[in-house]
Amino acid sequence: VFKYVTRAPDIAVYAVMVAYKEDPSPFKLNLGIGVYRTEEGKPLLLNVVRKAEKLLVNELSANKEYLPITGIAEFNKLSAKLIFGADSSAIKENRVTTVQCLSGSGSLRIGADFLAKHYHQLTVYMSQPTYANHPNFFVAAGITVKTYRYYDPTTCGLDFQGLLEDLGAASSGAIVLLQTCGHNPTGVDPSLEQWEQIRKLMRLNGLLPFFDCAYQGFVSASPDADAQPVRMFVADGGECLTALSYSKIMGLYAERVGALSIVCKTADVASRVESQLKLIIRPMYSNPPIHGASIVTAILKDREMYGEWITELKAMTDRITSMRQQLYNALHDRAIPGDWSHITKQVGMFSLTGLNAEQVAFLTKEYHIYMSSDGRINLSGLSTKTVPYLADAIHAAVTL
Ligand code: PMP
After folding, report:
1. What average pLDDT does the segment 88-110 reach?
2. Domains of the chain by range and CATH?
3. Measuring from each residue's beta carbon to the nearest atom of ligand 1, which residues come in under 6 Å?
4. Contacts by 297-303, CB closer than 8 A, 24 or more apart
5. Closest ligand 1 atom number to CA of residue 102
6. Claim: this prediction has a pTM higher than 0.95
7. Which atom of ligand 1 is least distant from the CA of 253?
């Protein structure tokens, strides 16, 4: 009965991973991955996560019963506090509903499905470019995807004028997907002044913000500072949605732990929204897994462990910043044509280097360096040892 099923195309980022794995070269370098790596190129399990797991072992093994459809209530409260702030009036007024979801992806998908069922304007605008999976969440929910200008390839920075023009021309009421910080794939974030202009324009045109918070804390090591764009929108009393992921910020990728929050105008609306979210989640996976969310809860609720998390978060962000500086210095030292200052101006885990598909193909073929064809690199895939190798390879690629 399945003989007419056609083969689906490979998913680009996984294809790069497979090619890297199969490459026998001892010099191979994987900059295409979307996960944090240590200076030794190893995955990082945070000490504070290990500690939380130890603490939880007895409690967890004693009880593996189903969670409620919306997950662990305390986890949801702490997640809302993490994004909106400890003194958020929206939280105090019970205008926020937060549900535990399967990481950032699950939160985006549940949010998209909720909007498809209960919102009147089924068009979403997302940045050009954006995380490759973003359109899929909304297309799957039956929402039309459009783009707004974001990245200026001539400066490798923000096309702020283009962004304002496109959002200014967006149909009234449209959904706008915004990345809170550490924009994937560009590493380009608006300044807080620019965010304020975006907020004013969006509120004026009645556009609905949906924030993807996959890197909250991964830019400045302060979850509060990184959440400022969201908090500016919440402070004006209007609605918004947020999809929070703990994959990167706590290194919990495979635990699939995240939260969808919907900020409403009143407590009554928020409670009705939550009742509808349950109807969306129930036929999809019934209820979320317990392990990852228990770890997050243990860390966020304990002052000491929270502090340890921030220290480890800072070690990750410091290493990334140092890699940016070292790469810039190495490119500068080689007097490679072009202005490479965007490498240090961009923030978060990624940099859109400005290398084109042909140059990327050259780096892979001649130097065994792997990255997506748009020239995006994961800075944490680098180390002090490998920076000179990459700089030499880029030198060769751009002076071909
Ligand atoms: N949003 C962005 C911008 C991302 O980069 C990612 C992961 N690469 C996600 C969402 C989803 O990640 P997860 O489902 O692991 O939270």
Report:
1. 98
2. 12-44+318-398 (3.90.1150.10), 66-301 (3.40.640.10)
3. 34, 103-105, 131, 179, 184, 212, 214, 245, 247, 253, 258
4. 297/72, 297/74, 297/75, 297/78, 298/52, 298/55, 298/56, 299/48, 299/49, 299/52, 299/250, 300/75, 300/78, 300/79, 300/81, 300/82, 301/74, 301/78
5. 14
6. yes
7. 15
